[in-house]
Each structure stands twice: as structure tokens, then as C-alpha cells.
Amino acid sequence: MTLNIFVQHFVNALSLGSLYGLISIGYTMVYGILRLINFAHGDIFMLGAYFVFFATIVYKLNWILGVIIAIAATTICGLLVDRIAYRPLRQAPRISALISAIGVSFFIENFAVVVFTGMPRPVVQPKILMKPIILPNKVRLIPLGILVPVVAFILVAALLWLLYKTKPGLAMRAISFDIETTRMLGVDVNKIIALAFGLGSALAAVAGILWALRYPRVEPFMGMTPGIKAFIAAVFGGIGSIPGAMIGGIILGFVEIMSVAFFPNLSGYKDAFAFFLLIVILLFKPTGILGSKIEDKI
């Protein structure tokens, strides 16, 4: 493998892994607070891609304005999911919330089929993000491939700052340890949980937008496979750990891209590598790379 090809594969793996990491953070935030796997998160990711499609292609808005509107609309959808599907079940058995999460996922997917139709829609890629950059040794890089990890790392750094340097972040961490004690201390638990859903949905929207640029089409079921892989990344990194979710996503991206790069004949099995990785981590380190054992409170 030449240096040119290796660098391109490296950037592609880092870009794909960063997207998985951004999506997986939504899973890990909700689980860290509520001990709930939000199976609708992949569909929130899909909505972010659709909103930017309608804003920029259908309504011809400026790309920056379209991205802002898409993130805001997706965040609102995430808040509505929490308010309608999860908040009424705060005191219910955990299996009820899990069933609700699966139901919300099916509802969003089929709602998207009815409203957006099942036909894939093309997404126009801004030329500035697709014009190749020629480096020494004839290495050709696409600006979009560099933009994705840069945006992802900036957002993760901002999220960590919010969690560890602000009062809402302190409240989130307190709720993750003991929700009832935090409530007795005067914290509006529902607002903090809604904030977690909103932040996770905003990150999913960014990931959906970048995914739509990287793979320029949108369709109602586009969130299923990335959502499952992002969940695997969250488990691999240590579900409940934000840095772990990002690390897990990047590792998964490298496993997926490099396995195909070095073993082209296995390209048809690239999705299977993610599930094999999940089985291995559950067998040998169930808490993940940065995860810690959490007592499950019924």
C-alpha cells in the first residue's frame, strides 16, 4: 500500500470514526443519567440530515443558515421525544421506557416515510468542501474528510467543558450518581434530563449533516445502521463515558475502513466487524475501555 493510499484511508477512518463518536455520545449521555438506551437516537440523526436537505435544497437557504436551522429543529425533536415518550415513564419499570424507546424509533422511521417518502434524496455537496487538496508525495485529501474530525473534537471538548465547568454539567453528573438525592437538593431533574437529550440530539444533528455531506443522499432508514454501530462504539468505549464513546467510535471507524483496505475481499463483511468487536468487548471487558461498573438500581 502506497503512502498516498494509506493517508487517504487514515483520514477516511478518522472521519468515519468521528461521526460514530458524535452519535454514540447521545447514547452514552442518556444512559449515564437514566440508565436507558435511547433506541430512537439513530432516527434523530436521520432527521438532522433531512432538515438540512430541506433547508438548503428545497428552500434554497444559505448553507450556514440551513445547518443552524437543522440543528435547532433536530434538538427540538429530541426534546419532544423526551417529553412525550420518556418523562411520563420516569417512575415506571425500566422495561416500559425501553419498549417506549423502540416504539418511538419505529414511529419516527415510518413517519419519515409518510412525510418525506421512501425515495432517497440527493444532497448537494458544497464545492469548497470537495475540492481536493494536493499534499507532497501526491497525497490528495478532501477538505470534508478533514473538517469532520475537527468539528467532532471541538464539539466533544465543548461538551466536556460544559459537564465539568458549569452548574448544569455538575447537575448532570450528580443525577448520574443518584437522581433522587439530586432532586431533594432542589435540582429540577426534568430540566437537566431535557438538557442532556437536547445536547445529544444537537450532536446527532451535526453528525447527520456531516454524514449527508459525506454520503450525499438521505432516506428514512439511513439512521439504522449508523445508530447500531454508534451504540456498539458507546459500549466499546464504556457506555456512560463521553471520552470513551468518542474513542470507541474512532476505533470502530478504523476497524471498518482498515479491514477493507487491507483485505478487500472482505468488503462485504465490513458491517460484521462491528458486531464481532461488540462480542469481544462484552466477553473480555463488559464495562468497555473507559467504563466503570455501575450498580443497576431498580
Q: How would a textbook summarize the main sheet?
A: 2 strands, antiparallel
Order of H and E elements: HHHHEHEEHHHHEHHH
- CATH topology, by name, is ABC transporter involved in vitamin B12 uptake, BtuC
Percent of residues in beta strands: under 5%
Overall geometric form: globular
- The total number of structural domains is 1
* Alpha plus pi helix count: 12
Q: How many angstroms separate the termini?
A: 53 Å
> What do the pLDDT scores average to?
88
Helix-and-strand structural type: mainly alpha
What is the highest CATH level, the class? Mainly Alpha
Please report the total strand number as a whole number: 4
The radius of gyration is 19 Å
Please state how the strands of the largest beta sheet are arranged side by side. Answer: 1-4
The low-confidence parts are: none
Percent helix: over 70%
Relevant terms:
globular; two-stranded antiparallel sheet; mainly alpha; ABC transporter involved in vitamin B12 uptake, BtuC; 12 helices; 298 residues
How would you portray this structure in words?
The chain is 73% helix and 3% strand. The protein is mostly helical. The protein has a two-stranded antiparallel ribbon. A hairpin with a 3-residue loop joins strand 2 and strand 3. The protein starts with a helix and ends in a 14-residue tail after the last helix. The relative contact order is 0.20. The mean pLDDT is 88.
